[in-house]
Amino acid sequence: MTPASRAALPFVIALLLLTALAYWPGLSGGFIFDDFPNIVQKTEVHATSLAPAELAKAIDAYGGPLGRPLATMSFAVDHALWGLNPWGYKLGSLLVHLLNAFLVFALVRRLLPPSPASSLAAAAPAFAVALAWAIHPLQVSTVHYVVQRMEMLSLTFVLLGLIAYLRGRRQQIAGRQGWPWIAGSAALGLLGLTAKETAALLPAYTLALELTVLSFGAATPAARRRWQVGYGLATAAAVAIFIAWVVPAYVSPDAYSVRDYSAADRVLTQLRVLPMYLGWIVLPQPASYLFYYDHVLASHGLLQPATTLAGGLLLLALAVLAIAMRRRMPLLSLGLLWFFAAHLLSSNVVPLELVFEHRNYFALLGIVLAITALVLRMPASEIPRLRPATVGVVLAGLMLLTLIRSATWGDPLHLAMSLAARNPDSARASMDLGEQFMLRAGRDPASRFYAMAEAEFERGSRVPNASPMPEQGLIVLAATAGKPAKDEWWDRVVHKLRTRAIGPQELAMVTGLLKMRQEGVAFDDLRFTEAYLVLVERMDMPAGQYYAFADHALTMLGDEHVATGLYKKAIEAGDAEFAAAVVSALHSAGHVAVARAVADHARAIKLADIALPEEPEAEAKAATEAGQAP
């Protein structure tokens, strides 16, 4: 161990202990929001042991070109160790955050200018930056929101990649071989993609390093020019791909069919959102962190609302400042550029939701670095130790705020009540609170929590732009207590499905009710069929979903006409093998008439020529049921 490493060791230990202390109260919390579809209900990640074959099942849990297999395998490990106990999952995420805090410390030590102070004192600024990043209260909703392990693991490899890149480039600048380190940096970035696609931003972060602290340095002028030309060409190619491929793919109305805003609206809205993020970082107030931001409305012009233009001007000023100061104050410039780069994927035309706190997991470091650059440039005070004391007070304040917020996240009911109270216009926050009351009511309609749940679901259902999820809560609440659902609840479900953009919440509401019905929860099948037929009318779905609805119509409702139409849609969305399997399953279950209709349809659309086995008795029965002579 080098003298510098020995001097840094006390700071590393303090960093890890203080960070663990800050987040420990939140480990007792529960799963929340997207944790349920991505972990609790995602059976593919429910490994029963740590055997390689078990863990391998999680690799394709999410599908897609990348599928985030590293993250899904980490959830499978959690399930093998803890089942569905959220404490273990949150502990796993905290361990990843501790690793990232150490990597931030190691990275910042390499970024800060050399200090004439002793080795011990030289490590103090990097410790302060890393601790501010690690215990900032904004990070609580990333560390304790289990599904965001994806974001955290992705950043682990990005941080490793940045450290390797710095090492390689500085060796090159000194005239030594650095390509192995740079190649390793690229490999680490690729590995980060297996956790989340945000690792693709690593080249943007390294470009920011070149523009600021590295200044495209090289041992020879020719090598310097090669780096400048290489990054110039790569940037031009990235912009060309974005304009020629990404923008056309997402500006069409179809790409935003699940949103109630357009691609242009989304980009305009980010002019308000990014300054809001800056406010969260610079002036941390737990009351400002709402977690759910479904109440945020999209901008429809620079003056609709006017804060869109004001936010855009602020961002423009910061961007100009970053470019103008990249020689005089490279650390300030780097921090600002990293903040902007961290939001390149989440603040463009891709049809994501408008606001999420976890998108600042790395961006926060950029702003902390920018503030650090300003602090380091301040003249030494006449009062000894004033600057370290001020930093200490700030860090203590961050620690206190994070402890408070983490403790709130450690109690699901307290968290739900807090989020609903601070954001009464959020239907999602209301839904969470209603579900917490429903859990405590059990199946007892006489429980005071039953009345509280019903009242909260009713309130949430009338929040502006609310999805039909609160109505789902009301229907399930009544069904589990053996009470009939009110017609007005079903009426509101159907109305919302007809008039709102069909997004993930609408689909989750209907499929959630279907799953509960399959599990034996009884409710009005006729009204439920009316609801999912609206969904079928308004959106294209995978073959399996049509089949599930058809199966409900046939087995629960007994409506062969509706079921036949849905089975036909199912085979249209599938292939010949799927169609044959559907016909075979129907025929084996005794639904000969439906099987024949589906087989005829497969033949009519030239999908498959499916022959049904000859079963005279079954045919006679089907004919008799249809009112015909055998």
Structure description:
The protein is mainly α. The protein has three domains: 3-407, no CATH class; 411-539; 547-630, no CATH class. The chain is built from 29 helices and no strands. The chain has helices at 3-23, 35-40, 52-56, 69-82, 86-111, 119-122, 124-134, 140-143, 149-173, 179-192, 202-214, 221-250, 263-282, 307-324, 330-342, 363-377, 386-409, 412-422, 427-441, 448-461, 469-480, 487-499, 504-518, 525-538, 543-557, 560-573, 576-588, 592-604, 616-625. The longest helix is centred in the middle third of the chain and has 30 residues, at 221-250. The chain is globular, with a radius of gyration of 28 Å. The N and C termini lie far apart (91 Å).
Report the radius of gyration as a whole number of Å: 28 Å
Count of the domains: 3
> What fraction of residues sit in β-strands?
under 5%
- If helices are DSSP runs of H or I spanning 4 or more residues, what is the number of helices? 29
Mean pLDDT across residues: 92
Distance between the termini: 91 Å
The ordered H/E elements are HHHHHHHHHHHHHHHHHHHHHHHHHHHHH
Q: SSE layout and pairings?
A:
Blueprint lengths: L2 H21 L11 H6 L11 H5 L12 H14 L3 H26 L7 H4 L1 H11 L5 H4 L5 H25 L5 H14 L9 H13 L6 H30 L12 H20 L24 H18 L5 H13 L20 H15 L8 H24 L2 H11 L4 H15 L6 H14 L7 H12 L6 H13 L4 H15 L6 H14 L4 H15 L2 H14 L2 H13 L3 H13 L11 H10 L5
Helix pairs in contact: 1-5, 1-7, 1-17, 4-5, 5-7, 5-9, 7-16, 9-10, 9-11, 11-15, 13-14, 14-15, 15-16, 18-19, 19-20, 19-21, 20-21, 21-22, 22-24, 23-24, 24-25, 25-26, 26-27, 26-28, 27-28
